[in-house]
Each structure stands twice: as C-alpha cells, then as structure tokens.
Design goal:
Layout lengths: L12 H7 L9 H9 L2 E5 L4 E3 L7 E7 L2 E7 L2 E8 L4 E2 L1 H6 L6 E4 L3 E7 H10 L1 H30 L2
Antiparallel strand pairs: 1-8, 2-7, 3-6, 3-8, 4-5, 4-7
C-alpha cells in the first residue's frame, strides 16, 4: 500500500473509508492499518468489469469508493443480483475456498477497491492473527446475512 496518510497523518488514506463503516466498528486503528497494509489499491472506471463469472478467483475486495454491480448471466442476458457499496466485501469465496467466480463484478461508477489476495490474507494470518480472525468473523456475519436474504427471497417465491 502506498505511504499516503489521512488528514490526521496517522493512518493510510484507504483506512478512512473503512473507519466510518459499521462493518469495521470492531476494528481498532492498528487493526485497520494492518489490514490495509496487506491490501492493494485498485481503481476502476465506471462500467469496467473486474472479473467474470467462471473465472478462477484469487482475491476478495472491499469497496473504498463507488460501487460494484454483481451480475449473473442467464438465457435472457445479464441480471443484477446485487450491489456492493463502500465498506462492503465481495469475492470472498475465492479467498475462503479458491472456487471460480459465481458472478460477474462490474464497476457501477468510478470505483476504488482494496484488493486482499488469498496469499496476502495468509500473510495477514501469520503477521496479525487477531486482525485475520476479525476479518473472518466479519465475513461469516456477512455470508450469514446474504444466506438469510436469499432464503427469504426463495420462501416468498414458493408461497406465491
């Protein structure tokens, strides 16, 4: 990560976007700094595809600025199945189990991301296990929320 710092001069710029987000309320400034130190900043213009469904995944992403549309291809074309906003994760299955991408990710607008590769996460586990555990706890909460949401949608369709 670049050595740029926020207005206070104490934390990398990329941490500022995360400090304010509820997903990171349980992280100390030192933990956010440790996380950002293992990430790579990636910028995408609006409309640019980050990855395509079926590609082998090597990293997960945190939206720093902008938003990402998650798309699924079907016989009628692309369907937006979700949108990922500032402070939210996506692509985490690639880091957890190394599986191919389940959907396509495209920048909805000009977007900045923090990329955490599987290798960088493994290094974070060694260098700062407490931060790595907090990341995994956060991912478990987010995945549980997504599973509940999908379950509710499925139940609504079957009860119509």
């Amino acid at each position: 990560m670049a050595d740029k710092v926020d207005k206070l001069g104490s934390l990398p710029v990329c941490v500022g976007a995360l400090e304010e987000h509820p997903n990171f309320s349980r992280f100390s400034a030192a933990e956010l700094k440790a996380l950002s130190g293992h990430c790579v900043l990636k910028a995408l213009p609006g409309g640019k595809v980050l990855f395509n469904e079926g590609e082998q995944g090597q990293a997960m992403f945190i939206v720093k600025k902008g938003s990402i549309k998650i798309l699924k291809m079907g016989y009628l074309g692309e369907t937006v199945i979700g949108e990922v906003n500032v402070g939210e994760f996506f692509g985490e299955m690639a880091v957890i189990d190394g599986s191919p991408r389940m959907a396509t990710a495209r920048a909805a607008v000009e977007t900045e991301l923090l990329e955490l590769s599987a290798d960088a996460y493994a290094k974070l586990q060694k260098d700062n296990p407490q931060t790595a555990v907090k990341i995994m706890d956060l991912l478990l909460r987010l995945l549980t929320q997504r599973l509940r949401s999908v379950t509710v949608k499925m139940l609504k369709k079957t009860t119509k």
